Amino acid sequence: MIKQLLYFAYGSNLLEQRLTNRVGKVTVYGTYVLQDYELYITPVGWADIRPKKDSTVEGVLYILTPFQFSILDRYEACYIKEYFTVNDILTGVYTYHPSLSTEFPNRLAAPEYIDCIISGAINFGLEDTAEKMIKYKEALLVRKKKSKRLKAK
Predict the structure, then answer these.
(1) CA–CA dist 17, 120 (Å, integer)
(2) How far from 42 is each of 23, 90, 106, 120, CA to CA, in Å?
(3) Quick one: pLDDT at residue 103?
(4) ∠ CA 82-26-59 to the nearest 5 degrees?
(5) Gap between the Cα atoms of 135 and 142, Å rounded
(6) Which residues pair with 30 in a beta bridge?
(7) 10: Cβ–Cβ under 8 A, 6 or more apart, which residues?
């Protein structure tokens, strides 16, 4: 029976406190770079990864119990859990599945959500992720400001 699994976090769960608040105390296994994938924000404002040759996604590997994974499954309900191995250890990663989120209209990511990703990335020294999300947040804030001005007219 599997007693522990690795979970590859690349989005808001990079922030260890956020993940701990969701599933209880977690242990960091280490950082990891997933090859041939890219990090992006979906049309509904959530972080996701998708295959892209010669790209990478920085993330953190956490050790979770099967029970913790079952709790996380409820938080990540609009994502599909996929598996790969790291050092011969089964590792789960959640990838977004658009057909599961038909109740969510297209929307911009919340700045606080992006802040979780940025803070987690900085805490773990994931410079590329932090830089990418800082740029995304800057563009997001400009779009929100323009949107407010248009609504005011």
Answers:
(1) 9
(2) 24, 26, 9, 19
(3) 56
(4) 50
(5) 11
(6) 61
(7) 34, 39, 47, 49, 57, 58, 59, 93, 129
The rounded distance, in Å, linking the Cα atoms of 46 and 75 is 12
pLDDT at 105 over 90: no
Work out the percent of the chain whose per-residue pLDDT is above 70.
86
97-136 burial: b if 16+ Cβ within 10 Å, else e: eeeebeeeeeebbeeebbebbbbbbbebebeebbebbbeb
109, 46 contact by CB (below 8 A): yes
Contact between 18 and 60 under an 8 Å Cβ cutoff? The reply is no
Mean pLDDT, to the nearest integer, of 70-88?
A: 84
Question: Token pair for residue 96?
Answer: 């977004």
Q: What is the pLDDT of residue 96?
A: 61
For tokens 């830089």, name the residue. Answer: 131
- DSSP-derived pairing of the beta strands 79-86 and 89-96: antiparallel
Number of DSSP helices (H) and strands (E) in the chain, helices first? 4, 5
Angle at 10 between CA 6 and CA 11, to 5 degrees: 125
Cα 55–Cα 56–Cα 61 angle in degrees, nearest 5: 165
